[in-house]
Amino acid sequence: MGASGSKARGLWPFASAAGGGGSEAAGAEQALVRPRGRAVPPFVFTRRGSMFYDEDGDLAHEFYEETIVTKNGQKRAKLRRVHKNLIPQGIVKLDHPRIHVDFPVILYEV
Asked: Where is the lipid attached (N-myristoyl glycine)?
């Protein structure tokens, strides 16, 4: 519970290169652990968009269309959610960078 997807799969990009866990290793270890292999920045600059484009090019989280239902001789309008012909928004640039969820840093206010 509380494990991120990459950590659960065994891919921990911010793991320490030193495998020891003794008292001497604790003093020598830095506050921010350097990643093994490729350099992974601790910040996130983009995210996947949660909105969709419809056929007309409108952008929204959900789309509805109005349908007319006749019941007992009375016409009544109902809204039906549209699921077809929607295009995902794609990658969205964030206004200000966020800290990566897998980066092991404790934030506190002084």
From this structure: 2
